[in-house]
Amino acid sequence: MTEQNDRPQANIGVVGLAVMGSNLARNLASRDGNTVAVYNRTRAKTDELIGAHAEAGFIAASSYAEFAASLVRPRTAIVMVKAGRPTDAVIDELLAVFEPGDIIVDGGNALFTDTIRREQAVRAAGVDYVGMGVSGGEEGALLGPSLMPGGSDASWVTLGPILRSIAAVAEGEPCVTHVGHDGAGHFVKMVHNGIEYADMQLIAEAYDLIRRGTGRSPAEIADVFAQWNSGELESYLIEITAEVLRQQDAATGAPLVDVIADQAGAKGTGGWTVQTAIDLGVPVSGIAEAVFARSLSSHPEQRAVAAALPGPASALTVQDPDAFIEDVRLALFASKIVAYSQGFDEIRAGAARYDWTIDLGAVARIWRGGCIIRAQFLNRIADAYALTPDLQVLLTAPYFVEALGRAQDAWRRVVAQAAAAGIPSPAFSSSLAYYDGLRADRLPAALIQGQRDFFGAHTYRRTDREGTFHTLWSGDRSEVPAVDTH
């Protein structure tokens, strides 16, 4: 074990040595040029890490003062503790021992508005605060995550080389970029997680439809997903789906997926994505339905009572299993495109609201490796934004227009068959509804606006002339120009 001496040695430190923090510290220590200081509130965690990985040459600290003294300037610490009050507590401790020009990096899943608040408070003390999204789970933290740091331009000068040394690499490029200032990094990570929710729900719906429609076993469906993973659906989530479906339960011999309770957990970032999208006025219906589907799954007591509700008289009948499976594949691909497009819409809207300059193509590139939603078609997203940086709707890029045109008939068949058979497919169906709403030349919102004007005098605009108007519904029903109340 390497103990603190009188001379600063570490160029980077990690506070919080649970699994993610420990793995990130080991990743940092394994890269040339990095010497890593480590601190944990409970000293036993520090001793455990150092004892198990003496080769890392960690510099252990027993106090925040000792931790700060071990770091060369500008002192740089990555905080890997639970979001919320634990993060605020660590920030206060570090501010007591850090000096102007030093850098605090929050690598937890913080709400981006908390990061904005913290950045302002820490900056007042002359210290840089960087909210950084970290994706890839425990394995990614150790072997190479996708990293989404925010913070100031000055902090990136110091952090850039360190983070590039530990990030995943995709097609020769490290999966890290300076996303933007203050809360931009955590905002992008939040949306990443929202897309992840949608992606997982869509895959689950595809599995459910294939199993109900063809009667194939989980192991046989695993083979289907493995085959899909060699084509345009290639992604980490498709890959691990095949692994999960092949797994047998040791105790019963049954497929593991059949003995896992059908109640999906959530840690909040998907909900944040939807709440923030509502605030921004951005439709993320596929992500929202995925969040709500998890919520519904987590209420077995309601589902037990509702099991007596009437449903269709006949189950799903498939005449050609192979053709049906191909339809499901295309529906999955189309719906995944919608989920990613909605997520990038939210990032663009967030950047406009919070005055961030976010390179959407760069975001797509850093998601190609290390992170949970890494997928082959992220290259196509990066290409689309490279060709048209101000692209308003990702779905309208030529590659996606072709893909959606090729998939839409199958997509419609799958959604219709699922509805007719009473099989829930909320993410498939909401994604298709969004697609059709986006391409519609006229929506029934005109009626809604008329209703709003009737009961609340909310006014409306016309299609044939400028201005806003109100109908005197309780009077002679003549139309009058709306009064400007601003």
Set out the fold topology.
Layout: E1 12-15, H1 19-29, E2 36-39, H2 43-52, E3 59-60, H3 64-69, E4 76-79, H4 85-97, E5 103-106, H5 112-123, E6 128-135, H6 137-143, E7 146-149, H7 153-166, E8 169-170, E9 173-174, H8 184-214, H9 218-228, H10 236-246, H11 256-259, H12 269-280, H13 285-297, H14 300-306, H15 321-354, H16 360-366, H17 378-387, H18 398-421, H19 426-439, H20 445-456, E10 460-461, E11 468-471, E12 479-481
Parallel strand pairs: 1-2, 1-4, 2-3, 4-5, 5-6
Antiparallel strand pairs: 6-7, 8-9, 10-11, 11-12
Can you give a write-up of this model?
The protein is an alpha/beta fold and 486 residues long. It has helices spanning 19-29, 43-52, 64-69, 85-97, 112-123, 137-143, 153-166, 184-214, 218-228, 236-246, 256-259, 269-280, 285-297, 300-306, 321-354, 360-366, 378-387, 398-421, 426-439, 445-456, and strands at 12-15, 36-39, 59-60, 76-79, 103-106, 128-135, 146-149, 169-170, 173-174, 460-461, 468-471, 479-481. The strands form 3 sheets. Strands 3-2-1-4-5-6-7 form a 7-stranded mixed β-sheet, sandwiched between helices. It has a 3-stranded antiparallel β-sheet with strand order 10-11-12. A two-stranded antiparallel sheet has the order 8-9. α13 packs antiparallel against α19 (426-439), α15 (321-354) crosses α18 (398-421) and α15 (321-354) packs across α19 (426-439). The protein is globular, with a radius of gyration of 26 Å.
